[in-house]
Amino acid sequence: MSVLEVTSELYSEAEFCSTETGNGNSISKFTFVYPNRRDAAPAENGTQPGLANGMDKRYNGQPVADSESKASSVKDSEEVEEESCFEEESFASDYGDSLCEEEQEEVLLYGESGDECCIATHQKDTKPPPIVLDKDGDVVVVRQRKGAIDIEHRKSTRLDAVGLQIWRGALLLGDYIMHNERKFKNTHILELGSGVGLTSIVASMYAREVICTDIDIEGLLDLLRDNMQRNAHLSSPHCRVHVTELDFKVSYQDYPRDLKTKLQDVQYVIAADVIYDDDITEAFVRTIVSLLLELPKLKAIYIALEKRYVFTLEDMDSVAPCYDYFLRYFEKRNGRFGVNRWKLINVCMDFPRYFDYDKVKDLVLLKVCHASK
Predict the structure, then answer these.
(1) For residues 24 and 171, what is the distance between their CA atoms, to the nearest angstrom?
(2) Which residue, 203, 195, 135, is CA-closest to 174?
(3) Closest by CA position to 301, among listed 318, 284, 279
C-alpha cells in the first residue's frame, strides 16, 4: 500500500535558491526585506552610522543614542511598557473576513457583544516620507536592506510529518512579527509546532527568549536545532533560544518541570500551520487553553493558518473543514463553563509582505487573548 505524500504549495510559487543535502533534504534560502530599515547616509566624518544585527538603531522611526539603545536591549521584559489588546487589528461579528477600514473598528469576531476587549486601532500614515538630502544637496537614495534565512527542510512528506516542510503560514507569521517588532522586542516567546524553525528564527531577531517546540518525529528536533544554529547570526545578541519537545497530546501537568519553569515568563505564544487534522486540532486547542490558564504573563496567542477548501456533496458548497472545525472546537472549549473566557480575533491582513511568497486571500491570522483584559 503506497503512502500518500503532501507537498507545500510554497515551493511552486517562487524560485527559492536550494541545494540538495544528499539525505533527502534541501537547504533553501528565504530572502526578506528588513522592515523600516534603510541604508543610512554616511556621517560627515565618512563613517557609517552604528548598526546592530544589520539594522540601524531606531525607536519609533527616530535615531537612538548608543547608550539608550544598549539600555533598551538589556531591559527586562517586565519593565517594557505593559501592553493591552489594543493593536492594529480588525474584527467581524462572525467568523468572516477581517475588516480593514480607515476608521477605528470596535466589532468583535468572537465573544459577547459590547465587550471592549481588543479594540482595533487601524491607522494609516498619509504623510509621504521626507526627502533626505546630502551635504551637496543631492537626494539620498533609500535602499532596502535585505537578509536571508537558510532552512534545511523536506520538499514532500507524509501528512504526520508536515513539520519537516515550509508552509505559507510560517512566512505570514514572520511578516507579522517583523511589522510589529516593537511589540515583540525583549519579550519571551513560545512557538508551538515550530517545524524547521523559520518563524522562531524571525522571533529570535527581536525577543529576549524563544522556546521552540514540536514533536520529535523523523529527526525533526535535531533539524530544528541545526536551523536555529545555522541562522544564529540573525538573532538578537541578547536572545536565548531553547529547543525542546512539546506534544499537543500531552497535558500541561505532565510537562517536564524545567519546561514549566521556562513557560512562566512567556508573554506571547505563536503557531503556524498546525490546523490540518481534527485530532491534532483538538489537542492543539486543549494545549492553548491550558497555556491561557497556567501562564501568568501570557498576553496573546497568534495563530497563522491557511483555509483549504474542498467541495462536499453534504454541503453542496466549497468549505474549509479544518478551519471550521477549529472554530467550533475552540468555541466549545471556551464556553464550557457558561461564559466566554477568551476572545478570538481576526487580525487585519494589510501589514506588508517582507518574505517572497504569495500572500493568498485564504491565509488567516488569529489572535486569542483573555476576555477580562
Answers:
(1) 23
(2) 203
(3) 284
Cα–Cα nearest to 10, from 225, 204, 196: 196
DSSP annotation string for 226-257: HHHHHTGGGS-TT-EEEEEE--TTS-GGGS-H
Q: What is the pLDDT of residues 266-286, one digit of tens each?
A: 999 999 999 988 999 999 999
- Residues ≥6 apart with Cβ < 8 Å to 230: 150, 151, 152
* Per-residue confidence (pLDDT) for residue 124, from 0 to 100: 43
Q: Which domains does the chain show, CATH number per domain?
A: 162-370 (3.40.50.150)
Does residue 269 contact residue 192 with C-beta atoms inside 8 Å? yes
According to DSSP, residue 4 is labeled P
φ/ψ (deg, to 5) at 200:
-65, -35
Q: How far apart are CA 190 and CA 192, in angstroms?
A: 6
C-alpha cell at 170: 510560517
pLDDT tens-digit readout, 174-222: 999 999 999 999 999 999 999 999 999 999 999 999 999 999 999 999 9
**What is the DSSP secondary-structure string of 66-135?**
HHHHHHHHHS-GGGSPP--S-BS----SSSSPPP--SS-----SSS-TT--TT-B------SPPPPPB-T
**CA distance from start to end of the chain:** 52
Q: Which three cell numbers stand for residue 217?
A: 518525529
* Distance, CA of 134 to CA of 140 (rounded, Å): 6
Distance CA 86, CA 164 (A): 35
Q: How far is Cα 307 from Cα 313, in angstroms, rounded to an integer? A: 19
The owner of cell 519537516 is: 164
Helix, strand, or coil here: 342?
A: strand
Any idea how long the chain is? 373
